[in-house]
From TrEMBL:
Keyword annotations: Hydrolase
Family matches, as Pfam families: CN_hydrolase
PROSITE patterns attached to this UniProt entry: CN_HYDROLASE (PS50263)
Segments forming domain CN hydrolase: 72-346
Name this polypeptide is given: CN hydrolase domain-containing protein
Organism listed in the record: Iphiclides podalirius
């Protein structure tokens, strides 16, 4: 990604220092000190050799008298594709798996308990092409497909829960395709899965060509390390989507995504979406986005009046972690593969909820009445006009 800015943080750190930098960090990130966590020298060496960034930050809670700290270490992986998209499906997928394995191994050596990969991590984002072949061949079983089998071994090896977003083929229901997050336990078992609830229908990411809105509700997965949920991709733009994961008891909600920048892209909203959700719902959030440009053999158009093109991107990375108090980590690079680690004390969730009282004051019964009315075919919006009685 020649000519692209490495990261927002690189701009800040190159132009601010001392008191100004501290105050910027306080206002923008929520604390003057990012509380960096020391990494193993071997991890830094591996990252350097394999050409990916690695960073780790702590999110502590206050010491309590009646509860011990609930420390969990999470990891987020962002990356680009490897093999050109005109190569075989098997070659493309295997190249990505082997590339990401090195990063997963590093996360395992760092003691990561819960790892989340980016949306549809084992394939390019071909949705703009609207072509069915050969792209549908990336689909596989969520329960026992090759990607899940590959990750099971790593989950067992490192006693690590792994969240893997794939293109699922449901052979038991007419070969229907879904955008599905598979949650693999630290024992190697598939705990369950969640299918993407909200499907974008605009620009290059017209994903409704390939799969339908999910039918799995808002599941929360009770793992050895805490209760986690997965708000896939475009679902981050839907406030109620985030809220119901919280109502179901989520302590960490991951948002694996594939979203692009540019003049009409999502980058200006990326840094606030998952952060807003963390604040309003009183849980940790973790947003993951891929990096790079992806070139396809045939040109396609987006229905937006722009010329036909065969390159999708830039995917701008910038993965980050946010606490329930709105304190967030610096983002990973916009241009490079990376592993971001967060050391979280889940006690912080309750401490923030006790302090802010957002859950105590949210008045769900009012929303229930209003939403019920809004769904009525003859809905009359509650608008008061000056001269109408």
């Amino acid at each position: 990604m020649d000519g692209e800015i490495h990261s927002l943080e690189s701009i800040i750190n190159n132009n601010l220092n001392g008191y100004d930098l501290e105050q910027y960090n306080r206002i923008h990130y929520g604390r003057t000190n990012h509380i960096e966590v020391n990494l193993k020298e071997s991890s830094s060496n591996t990252a350097n050799d394999a050409n990916f960034d690695i960073a780790a930050y702590s999110f502590p809670a206050k010491e309590e008298q009646t509860r011990s700290p609930r420390i969990v270490k999470i990891g987020l992986i962002q990356h680009s594709i490897v093999t050109p998209t005109d190569q075989s499906i098997i070659d493309q997928k295997n190249a990505i798996l082997q590339k990401v394995k090195t990063i997963i191994d590093t996360a395992g050596e760092e003691g990561v308990n819960v790892l989340c990969l980016q949306e549809l991590w084992n394939m390019p984002i071909f949705f703009g092409s609207r072509e069915k072949q050969p792209w549908c061949e990336f689909s596989e079983s969520a329960e026992d497909g090759p990607t899940t089998r590959f990750l099971r071994e790593l989950a067992i090896k490192y006693a690590m829960v792994i969240v893997s977003s794939i293109l699922e083929r449901d052979e038991n229901h007419g070969d229907v395709l879904w955008n599905t997050a598979v949650v693999i336990s630290d024992t190697g078992n598939v705990i369950g899965k969640h299918r993407k609830s909200h499907i974008p229908r605009g620009g290059d990411l017209n994903e409704s060509t390939y799969y339908m809105e999910g039918n799995t509700g808002h599941p929360v997965f009770a793992t050895r390390y805490g209760k986690i949920a997965v708000n896939i991709g475009f679902g981050r733009h839907h406030v109620l989507n985030w809220m119901i994961f919280g109502l179901n008891g989520a302590e960490i909600v991951f948002n694996p995504s594939a979203t692009v920048g540019g003049d009409c892209g999502s980058e200006h909203t990326w840094n606030i979406g998952a952060r807003n959700a963390a604040i309003t719902n009183g849980y940790f959030t973790a947003a993951i986005n891929r990096v790079g440009y992806e070139r396809f053999p045939n040109e396609f158009t987006s229905g937006d009046g722009m010329p036909a093109h065969n390159v999708l991107g830039p995917f701008y990375g910038s993965s980050y972690i946010c606490g329930p108090n709105g304190v967030r980590s610096p983002g990973l690079s916009r241009t490079r593969d990376g592993l971001l680690i967060g050391v979280l004390d889940l006690n912080l969730n309750r401490q923030v909820r006790d302090s802010a009282c957002y859950q105590m004051t949210q008045r769900l019964e009012l929303y229930l009445k209003s939403l019920s009315k809004a769904l009525d075919f003859n809905y009359d919006p509650q608008v008061i006009h000056e001269h109408r009685k």
